[in-house]
Structure of DegT/DnrJ/EryC1/StrS family aminotransferase:
Amino acid sequence: MSVIPPLDLTQQFQTISAEVNEAVLTVLASGQYINGPRVQQFEQAFAAYIGTSEAIACNSGTDALYLALRAYDIGAGDEVITTPFTFIASAETISQAQATPVFVDIDPATFNLDLAQVEAAITPRTRAIIPVHLFGQPVDMTRLMAIAQAHNLIVIEDSAQAAGAEWNGQRVGSIGQVGCFSFFPTKNLGACGDGGAVTTSDPAIAARIRALREHGSRTRYYHDEIGLTSRLDAVQAAILQVKLRYLETWNEQRRAIAARYTELLRPIPGVIPPLPIPGGKPVWHQYTIRLSPLPAGTVGGEYRDRVRQSMQQQGVSSMIYYPLPLHLQKVYEPLGYGPGSFPITEQLCHEVLSLPMFPELTPEQQERVVYALKDSLNPQG
């Protein structure tokens, strides 16, 4: 019996291999491997797709967040509000900029920031908010931008998992002052290595980010500030340029798969499927369910792990994003949070399970996934 993986990049490559091979070989033959026309062409195409005037390609989604923070001079003494239920890069970059992450609990229906609590967390030291469009589900940006504007705060959209997602018809990454994207291979738009981009329609911010990614230099060998080396190489840009042409198709396939999952899971007690919120058009980077309510006498994380192991034994792989929230990570102990600080986040860390999700997933495979899940929830039948 074949194993259904959480993600299968080999199938994607098979469908576009001729185009990717040609694009890569063209770059290799050109001898222009860093910056150059292919990177610029991808930046222009990606900016047009997102709906901004500028896109600045860089080495990773992590660097994109850091560059955005630096571009707005956010640093020591400043606070930035974000979620504890995300990959560490969302908060780590705040710390790298020498600012302080301020965590806010999440909405159990969307896994995104609880916007009612965002406003309550604002202090005179708050400079920015980093909403994370987690699992490809957009944050309510209408409400968030109103909060930010009322308090004169910068909004840096962490769109690492949400390339192509929309809020009220506008693509994420074009609503706040800047958007930050990751092109890690597993993303909806993924390179064959690391990569990222910052999107903005502010030309001054774009120019500063371009300088920061090049050692703080606007003119070669002349350096205005301390920067870093954070470039997207031309080979990755060429691959991404090919893949960008397919992104909308792939995202539509993900939406169809998500709708099918939701229909199949609806009758199963103890499973809460994720649902789009009004105004949002998700891209389902992950299809993440909750195992809730828990059976009597079970412990959250242990029960979820047992279900996952049983599914694996039946040839169905799954993933856990994220088993330990950021406020309980050792590195953030100095912030003074502890167990109980964000009860919804802590509860969901014990309940979430991400099912296989990739555009090529077949209806038959989905039925296998759901059967294995149902069997694992009730092994006695």
In short: The radius of gyration is 21 Å.
